[in-house]
Sequence to fold (261 residues):
Amino acid sequence: MALTGKVAAVTGAAMGIGRAMTELLLQHGAKVALLDVNETAAKSLMEVLAKQFGPERVLFVRCDVESEEQFRDSLQKTVDTFGGIDIMCNNAGILNEALLEKTVSINLVAVIRGTYLATELMRKLNGDRGGVIINTASITGIFPLMSIPIYTSTKHGVIGFTRSTAAAFAALGYGIRVNALCPTFVQTELFSDIPSRLGQFSKLDEHNQQLLAQLGLLSVSETVEPILELITDITKNGEAICVSPKGKKYATFPTLMELLT
Fold:
């Protein structure tokens, strides 16, 4: 899939990884709808992007991903403005171990919601053009991090959901691929002041610092670069690509029979 002229919707697009995704997609010729609850940051970014890429290629829609109505309306506005959706990036996320329900709601439920709502507008069975969905997971979705068990569980869920829907959509002939991005530590607002976000596990931040010293810190541009491969390579479906300062590597998972024998 070449990106020129394609339409992407990105949640959590105003800052961090979402902003980097938006800029990368625009640089490669896509039109992008920025879906975010942060109007101030989004409108500021829109001014920059409109000057750089043209106002006809960017759209901002205020969207709280915890609201099914807002999410549905924002995707419909994307279709009404740009004529369809080819790429859905479920990227919005939080890290706060003191906010159990909200963390699960944004990090996992909203990914499921965004996937299903986008699928209604993308699948070939509806006469639409198919496409690809990118879910922002984390290395913690594969390797559990003891200081953030709630966050870790949501990212495990994202990877499981990604792999399951990828297989289901292929079997049903939807024409939609689903892949996951799994970065290590990334220099974003989410990463700032980590101890205050750990709740009862704040004393375990030393373990995070040890891992950070071993793994290093990703820039947002390094983090999002692999999505180009996940989007454009039509053989990539149900993949979880792990990204670190040392490079990228696709995660491998045992088959059911390998687990049971």
